[in-house]
Design brief:
Length: 253
């Protein structure tokens, strides 16, 4: 962070990336990088970038690393506001971790589904249809807690006020949009689709292309959390087992 080779951090052989978190919005940052070998080091390369103030409607590109995300990956998300029921909020328009927005309400591809999270756990899971990545190890969750900021995958992905929707916000968009079945969320500007879920007991993937399950930030009980789910004949907010893996959409005030 300073133009001083002697205080720099060695990243290792051929490692040319470094992930930083906790940056402030609308702030310019400068970093310095050197190459070195046994003969000495280069002059510094100066890297300057600004965390620009965000305007809803802009796209956001996130570079993920394994740990919180299941794989190394770069994803670009669209954003939208004026969603009936929560018109002042900004939302992402594809599932967290998805390569792109779904192509249809019954899109059963992994690329459109994105990743799945267990309630108040920061680790996301990718599921190609055979097994989850990383390995599925948590089969039960029993704790008295909503999602915390330190585990919220929206805050970890985007920072700067992004979070999971509350159960009230899901209820509001469900009611105001007259979401009676999966056509409601799909025909909205959110383009939510049936991404299925990962079962807590086995880590198996179920009903992708048939049902969609999306977490809220609030628990219903110590073993269950509020979520919105929908299929071709139903849509509503209910409670789901915390240890299931459900999809995530993100929201910002």
């Amino acid at each position: 962070t300073t133009n001083n080779y002697e205080t720099a951090t060695e990243l290792g052989f051929i490692d040319t990336t470094k992930l930083e978190s906790g940056l402030a919005c609308g702030t310019e940052y400068t970093r310095y990088a050197w190459a070195f070998n046994g003969c000495g080091h280069s002059s510094p390369v100066t890297l300057t970038q600004s965390t620009l103030t965000f305007t809803c409607g802009d796209s956001m590109t996130v570079g993920y690393v394994a740990g919180v995300a299941p794989v190394y990956k770069t994803v670009t998300y669209g954003t939208v506001s004026n969603i009936p029921g929560e018109t002042s909020k900004c939302w992402i328009t594809s599932n967290l971790g998805a390569d792109h927005q779904a192509n249809s309400v019954d899109d059963a591809t992994e690329a459109s589904a994105g990743w799945y999270w267990q309630f108040n756990r920061q680790q996301g899971y990718k599921h190609g249809g055979i097994y989850p990545e990383p390995s599925w190890t948590i089969t039960a969750i029993d704790e008295n807690s909503n999602w915390t900021a330190g585990h919220d995958p929206c805050a970890l992905s985007f920072g700067c006020g992004w979070r999971l929707p509350t159960s009230t916000e899901w209820t509001n968009v469900d009611a105001s949009g007259n979401w009676g079945d999966w056509n409601g969320p799909w025909n909205s500007a959110l383009k939510m689709h049936a991404a299925g879920y990962i079962a807590n007991s086995t880590g198996n993937l179920y009903v992708r292309g048939i049902w969609g399950y999306y977490w809220s930030s609030e628990q219903a009980a110590s073993i269950s959390g509020w979520e919105i789910n929908f299929g071709n004949s139903n849509c509503g907010v209910s409670n789901g087992t915390k240890a299931h893996g459900f999809s995530v959409r993100c929201i910002r005030d």
